[in-house]
Amino acid sequence: MIIFSFVIFTFSSGASHHSPERIKNKLSEASKNTVPVTKVAGSLLIKNTCVKKSATVCFMNVQDGAVFKAGQEILLRFGTAAKIKVAPITTPVKKNVGHHHLLISSDKNPVKDVVAGRVVPTSPRHIHFGKGQQEAKIKLAAGKYVLTLQFADSIHRSYGKDFRTKVNVVVK
């Protein structure tokens, strides 16, 4: 099961122990080592820019070798290099513009990489984020997995290996 969510927090004004400034500070402190936080018109917007300069796409919050509990909801945040623009599939085809795809591979159900120019298939193990989503929540059964984040254009053609990243995860 995949549950989508957006990473925008909006706060109303008012004095309380849950003031916008206090919540902003808490979120900012909590995210210092993961993703940057920006204040935009009264909202906090998490920037999804990869920290590693050589990366074109990245998992913002999951490291290679991560271990999760079976049945636990796993939040995956997707990032891109500054030169790449995430856009919904309604956007005309343009260089370095597109959306993310999550490929979920396991020993029992291997998934092949999608070469440049080929359309990313649609299946429970090839998940499309055609609305331009930059995060998802997934649940996995016990096992070893390779999660591949593949960037593709608005008609789902893969940009290939240079626009792909992988992490190995274990679910116990």
What would you say this structure looks like, in words?
The protein has 172 residues and is mainly beta. The protein has 2 domains: 2-46, no CATH class; 57-171, Sandwich (Immunoglobulin-like), CATH 2.60.40.10. The chain contains 1 helix and 13 strands, in the order E-E-H-E-E-E-E-E-E-E-E-E-E-E. Strands 6, 8, 9, 10, 12 and 13 form a 6-stranded mixed sheet that branches. Strands 1-11-7-5 form a 4-stranded antiparallel sheet, with no helix packed on it. Strands 2-4-3 form a 3-stranded antiparallel sheet, covered by helices on one side. It is globular. The two termini are 18 Å apart.
Essential attributes:
172 residues; mainly beta; Immunoglobulin-like; 2 domains; four-stranded antiparallel beta sheet; 13 strands; 7% helix
Provide a short characterization of the protein structure.
The chain is mainly beta and 172 residues long. Helices cover 7% and strands 38% of the residues.
Topology of this protein?
Blueprint lengths: L1 E2 L4 E3 L9 H12 L5 E4 L2 E4 L10 E3 L6 E3 L4 E8 L4 E2 L10 E10 L19 E3 L6 E5 L3 E10 L11 E8 L1
Parallel strand pairs: 6-13, 8-9
Antiparallel strand pairs: 1-11, 2-4, 3-4, 5-7, 7-11, 9-10, 9-12, 12-13
Number of domains: 2
| Beta-strand content bin | 35-45%
**Count of extended strands:** 13
Biggest beta sheet summary: 6 strands, mixed
Shape: globular
Assign a percent range to the helix content.
under 10%
Q: What is the string of helix and strand elements?
A: EEHEEEEEEEEEEE
Report Rg: 17 Å
**Fourth-level CATH superfamily of the largest domain:** Immunoglobulins
* Mean of residue pLDDT values: 80
The count of helical stretches stands at: 1
CATH class of the largest domain: Mainly Beta
Classify the secondary structure makeup into a structural class: mainly beta
Instruction: Give the oligomeric state of the chains in this entry, treating copies of one chain as homo and distinct chains as hetero.
Output: single chain
- What is the distance, rounded to the nearest whole angstrom, between the alpha carbons of the first and last residues? 18 Å
CATH topology tier name of the largest domain: Immunoglobulin-like
The CATH architecture of the largest domain comes to: Sandwich
Low-confidence stretches: 1-18, 26-46
